[in-house]
Amino acid sequence: MIVATTRFGSLSVEPEDVISFRDGLIGLPSLSRSVLLADSANAIVAWLQSLTVPGCAVAVVHPRRFVPGYQVRVAPSELSPLGLHSPSDASVLVVVGQSNGNMTLNLKAPLVLNLHAGLGRQVITENAYPLRYVIVPDRPRLRRSA
User: Fold this and answer.
1) What angle do CA 1, 41, 32 make, to 5 degrees?
2) Whole-angstrom distance, CA of residue 92 vs CA of residue 81
3) Quick count: other Cβ atoms within 10 Å of Cβ 94?
4) pTM given for the model
5) Which of 108, 110, 112, 111 minimizes the C-alpha distance to 130?
6) Using H for helix, E for strand and C for coil, what is the string for 40-100?
7) CA 7, CA 15: separation in Å to the nearest integer?
8) pLDDT tens for the chain, residues 1 to 146
9) Between 2.30.290.10, 3.40.50.300, 1.10.760.10, 3.40.640.10, what CATH number should domain 2-134 receive?
């Protein structure tokens, strides 16, 4: 199918690449059918592009790239709609945002995906993670000159 987007133009999307979020995302209930797109300019970022709202694309990243010990703790009932056979079948992404000029990650409400089944769900973790985890860019280290 061909999907019109404002950020990426017209896209050809295979039906097996569609991810269904039965409840949408928190604050974005219309984001119920999406596709995950790689960012050609930045391999760290992907985009969750809505198939029904052309102007709605959400930047997402793998949280362990920034928080190595990141874990999602939720009640099993939160994940049962995804049809996961084991935790290793899940892909976890977090939404990238901006606050006070800083890039942030929403570690409290990750997206859990079953890519094989084309299902996704945003959950609220029981962990004490923040809604706005500031990504601190690596600053160049200055060396003393002799």
Assistant:
1) 40
2) 15
3) 27
4) 0.87
5) 108
6) CCCCCCEEEEECCCCCCEEEEECHHHCCCCCCCCCCHHHHHHHCCCCHHHCEEEEEEEEEC
7) 20
8) 898 899 989 999 999 999 999 989 998 887 899 999 998 888 899 999 999 888 999 999 999 999 999 999 998 889 899 999 887 889 999 999 998 888 999 999 999 999 999 999 999 999 889 889 998 765 555 555 55
9) 2.30.290.10
- Domain range list for the chain: 2-134
> Using CA atoms, how far apart are residues 12 and 136, in angstroms rounded to an integer?
36
8: amino acid identity, one letter: F
